[in-house]
Amino acid sequence: MRAVAVAGLAIVVFGTSVSQAMAQGPTHVSLGSGFGCGLAEDGTVRCWGRNGSGQCGSEGPDARTPRPVTGLDAVQEMGVGYGFACARREDGSVWCWGDNDHGQLGVEGDDRVQAMAVPGVSNVAQLAVGAFHVCVRLETGRVSCWGSNSQGVLRAPESVENRATPGPIRGIANATQLWSGAYHACALVRRGQLKCWGASAHGQSGTRRRTRRAPPTRVRGIGDIAEISLGDGQSCARTTGGQMQCWGQNLYGAEEGVASFYSTPMTLPELSDVQSISVRSENQCAVAGGRVYCWGVNRMHQLHVPTTEAGLIVIHPSAVPGVSDATEVALGWFAQCVRHTTGRWSCWGRNQNGATGVGSNASMIETPQPLPW
Question: What is this structure's pTM?
Answer without folding.
Answer: 0.91
